[in-house]
Amino acid sequence: MGVARKKTYYYFILPSFLTILLLAVYPVFHCVYLSLHTIDLKLPHVGQVFVGIQNYRYLTGDGRMWRALSNTFLFTGGSVALELLLGLGIALLMHRRFRGRGLFRASVLVPWAIPTVVAGMMWAWIYHDQYGVFNYLLTKLGVVDGYIAWLGTTKTAMFSLILADVWKTTPFMALLLLAGLQMIPHELYEAAKIDGAGCFARFSRITLPLLRSTILVALLFRTMDAFRIFDLVFVLTHGGPGNSTETMSLYGYKYLFSYLEFGYGSALAVVTFLWVGLISTVYILVIRRIGR
Q: Whole-model pTM?
């Protein structure tokens, strides 16, 4: 009976296992395979030429790749840091009891529910150098003297991208942190109040220590997502001006689908995958260490 049950379990697991192999594992290995070849669809008669690690050697001397990598780290660090601070504040506010809390929670999640491409088109109009509401408000408030092409200059394009991403994904960070806050026993705060602890003391001695694991999990998800950013950059700047906002995912996309060089483009995708894996591993090790 035990053997029959085990076989039944395997039969139920097999479809999911095959689906994962087909949709997740196989594409990764196929991408690695392509990265070891020179494949230029502009020259189809050449075919696939095995070159080993030549594409990866070329990567080390590719200045544009290094700039895309630094842009990716800058975007990831700036957006995730701001999302953590704003998300924690919003989560603390949503955790409190007040009239209209349900409506507030629903409205906070609206930006996250909007598709990224739609949000990108919306922000493109907000940042418009002639008709954008962003310029209009800053001019009325006296912050700037005249309208600025926020997406058209190297000094402001990355900041504009980060701001748009923070608006879009801060609700996701807040939702994860709110789940962690609701797991903290309310009795701890009541005991701290009886002992005379103020708001800051309760936050620093109870909330933050008990929320560390949740914060790390939220940072893990958001860092992985931000490091692979493509759609928002593609819609708003397409990597410009002067490649100042070009990320690793966008750079790989251009080689794959604009330059039609599948070998080098696959190598860029593999490098991006390895960076995401490294960052994830570091987060997981830290989470495990805190959980002990």
A: 0.91
